[in-house]
Design a protein that fits this description.
This protein is of the alpha+beta class and 192 residues long. Helices cover 29% and strands 28% of the residues. It has a single domain, classed as Immunoglobulin-like, CATH 2.60.40.
């Protein structure tokens, strides 16, 4: 009887370790696939968000997050002092140019994230590049060329990334000004 239990444990434990390895390794990627598809197909309640397009959360949702539609992917209570801009970069057809307006000392950030590994590869923002207006050429690995004069190049190690922008809102009376600045953060193909 003891021999049988031991044999079962010797089979069960390695199987459980293998299952946990598979879950830990692949579950984040599966969830990412679902999230990516939701952004590209459904968006945040306002329709799909195509590749290389930034979505700005509506000002009304920021003012009253409980009014958000049930189909929205918007979060409530997470960043109650920052407006969120989000998009999915796909650099297979060439680089994208990111423009940020002069933030006049206001905190903002734009991060380039590889969610499959929960890794942030680059930041643009008050702490890293300052708050002056700027243009950045976002390129994937192996892109050959030179950025236009006055445009800083950011080389990402993959061609597909999640981009998340945040702009600080000082208070209720500042929402319109912050929203106007956040709407000016934009992506365009290099050719434009």
């Amino acid at each position: 009887m003891e021999q049988t239990r031991l044999e079962h444990l010797l089979i069960f434990v390695p199987c459980m370790i293998a299952v946990w390895f598979v879950v830990i390794r692949f579950l984040p990627r599966m969830l990412l696939s679902v999230y990516k598809k939701a952004i590209l197909v459904k968006g945040f309640g306002d329709g799909p968000i195509p590749f290389n397009t930034l979505y700005m959360q509506p000002e009304s949702i920021f003012e009253n997050p409980l009014q958000a539609s049930g189909s929205s992917l918007s979060t409530t209570g997470v960043n109650r002092d920052t407006l969120i801009t989000i998009g999915w970069l796909d650099l297979r057809n060439g680089p994208q140019r990111l423009h940020v307006p002069d933030m006049d000392g206001r905190y903002y950030s734009v991060q380039f994230t590889d969610p499959t590994k929960n890794t942030v590869f680059a930041y643009i923002g008050k702490r890293t590049t300052g708050t002056q207006a700027g243009d950045y050429l976002i390129t994937g690995p192996g892109w050959k060329g030179a950025p236009p004069q006055g445009v800083e190049q950011i080389v990402l190690p993959r061609t597909s990334f999640l981009i998340i922008g945040r702009v600080l809102v000082y208070g209720e009376s500042d929402l319109s000004a912050a929203y106007a600045l956040a709407k000016q953060i934009g992506l365009s193909p290099l050719a434009q």
